[in-house]
Design a protein that fits this description.
Order of helices and strands: HEHEHEHEEEEHEEEEHEHEHHE
Number of helices: 9
Radius of gyration: 28 Å
Helix content: 40-55%
Number of strands: 14
Low-confidence stretches: 1-43
Oligomer: single chain
Strand order of the largest sheet: 2-1-3-13-4
Strand content: 15-25%
Length: 286
């Protein structure tokens, strides 16, 4: 009996040891794999920077990525399909920067979302903002009830209304809110009808509406229309609506931010920029 108890004890010890050994096999590879990843990251020596954009501004991020690589940075373009999504991701800490929106739009976004984002200086570029029409060669030919596609966000809606006032199609009264909106139109003798769309998609109405107001780059990307065949070019684009690298407030002085902007203004950066956009985005002279 005593011998049987001893044998049973030995068997239990062996079984316990077997399970303990299995447990250690599960833990060791996991720790080792994590260690490998950490070692690879340290050995690489590159700091990853994620910059949000849309297809229109992705080439600028690529210019930055090419220039930053030799400086020890791996820049990743994070593509979004809506105009407000990159800055939403930035404020939520999901990315490091944004190349897409102009300064008045950014200021409005920050107020509406109670966040602090800023456009680092120097500002990089601007987009010509133009009135286009496939159907008419002069605004005087627009018929009564003409449909004009315009960006729907507040900052660009005001910009569009100021363009229409400049060409004599409407007259604006006093602002009811921060930005001019359709309710502020005091005179509309041609009874202009407004087709509101997100700024990145308004250009697609060029073939259907009587006219569109859009950044030239979206007309260029949509194709089928000569971007230089416009009825009016907003002269305020460069001064009032600059575009650049947007970061969290307090980050604008970081080395990577300064180096990213410098990449675009380098000889290679400027050449690539001009070849890509052909005047639909224009670098701001420094």
């Amino acid at each position: 009996m005593k011998r049987k108890l001893i044998c049973l004890g030995i068997a239990l010890v062996m079984i316990f040891g077997l399970f303990a050994g299995c447990g250690s096999k599960e833990e060791v590879p996991e720790e080792t794999e994590a260690g490998k990843e950490d070692a690879a990251e340290e050995g690489n020596g590159e700091k990853t920077i994620k910059i949000g954009c849309m297809s229109s501004s992705e080439p600028i991020v690529q210019i930055i990525a090419d220039g930053m690589k030799e400086k020890g940075y791996a820049v990743e373009a994070v593509l979004f399909d809506q105009n407000n999504m990159p800055c939403t991701a930035l404020k939520d800490g999901e990315i490091d920067g944004v190349i897409l929106n102009h300064k008045p739009w950014l200021e409005t976004f920050c107020k509406e979302n109670n966040c602090e984002l800023t456009m680092a200086e120097p500002y990089i570029y601007y987009s010509p903002f133009r009135l286009y029409s496939e159907k008419y060669d002069d605004v005087k030919d627009f018929p009564d009830g003409a449909a004009i596609a315009v960006p729907s966000d507040a900052a660009n809606m005001e910009r569009s209304l100021l363009v229409l006032q400049e060409v004599g199609l409407i007259k604006l009264g006093e602002k009811a809110e921060t930005f001019y909106s359709i309710v502020d139109i005091e005179e509309n003798p041609k009874n202009i009808q407004f087709v509101e769309a997100e700024i990145t998609t308004a250009a697609r109405s060029i073939h259907d509406a009587d006219a569109v107001i859009s950044p030239a780059v979206y007309i260029f990307q949509d194709g089928g229309v000569d971007v230089e065949d416009y009825l009016f070019d907003d002269p305020a684009s460069e001064v009032k609506y600059p575009l650049g690298l947007i970061v969290e407030s307090g980050e604008e002085g970081e080395d990577w931010v300064k180096e990213a902007i410098a990449c675009v203004f380098s000889e290679n950066g400027k050449k690539a920029f001009d070849e890509e956009y052909q005047g639909t985005y224009i670098l701001i002279e420094q």
